[in-house]
Amino acid sequence: MSEPESGPPIARRVMLSMLGLGAAGIVAAPFVQNGWERVLGAVSQHDPTGLSGLLPNPGGFRYYSVAASVPRKTAADYRLEIGGLVERPGTYTLGELRALPQTRIVGEARCTDGWRVPDVPFAGVLLSDLLDAAGVRAGGRAVRFTCFDGVYTESLTLEQARRADVLIALDMLDEPLTHEHGGPVRLYVAPMYFYKSAKWLSGISVTDKVIPGYWEEYGYDVDGWLDQEA
Ligand SMILES: Nc1nc2c(c(=O)[nH]1)N[C@H]1C(S)=C(S)[C@@H](COP(=O)(O)O)O[C@H]1N2
Ligand SMILES: [Mo]
After folding, report:
1. Closest C-alpha residue for ligand 1 atom 18
2. Are 33 and 86 spatial neighbours (Cβ–Cβ below 8 Å)?
3. pTM summary value
4. Which fold has domain 79-218?
């Protein structure tokens, strides 16, 4: 696991320009409660805009978002699209996802920034069930995930995506996923670092090869296994 030396340059410019905005910028930023934490340099590699992780810190989590603002989606307007190299592309509502067989996994949430939360329950639909329902076509080798924050992306090989510990999670901590934790639907890749668990999931696309995700473009491993730390 290699950490990037510095955050993405564009995001850093955004952060600096936000500091210049002062109170107006802070009020406009939905995730920010305290400006001082950023000023003191408490900006993580995963949080280059400085917009997240500043809320009260329940149970050791930090809330991360690389997007400055994320629309809220409810059962009424949430949709998950599945497409790419599949026989039957389709769209699921939240109700349709809830109606499918649910799997509960208790795992660790471990960020490369150094924090970890053990024994976190996640529940939802096995990604493998959705892939089977869609019917992966012969050339399918990998899965690409997109998010309704409009920015974040992730990827898994098809073999990884079909594991029994990879969930399209609807619940976290035995409650419906909160907006801050990526609700109403996030990916949960139990055997990998938490950056693989894309929040605000809106798209699943089967591809012919792995397309590196957001952090992977900045040097993170596509294979983010927890048991192979550097
Ligand atoms: N859409 C989206 N998903 C994301 C991220 C993000 O910035 N945007 N950050 C990732 C990282 S680095 C971590 S550690 C976890 C943090 O999840 P949490 O905010 O629920 O604690 O979400 C992952 N999924
Ligand atoms: Mo992370």
Report:
1. 63
2. no
3. 0.81
4. Sulfite Oxidase; Chain A, domain 2 (3.90.420)
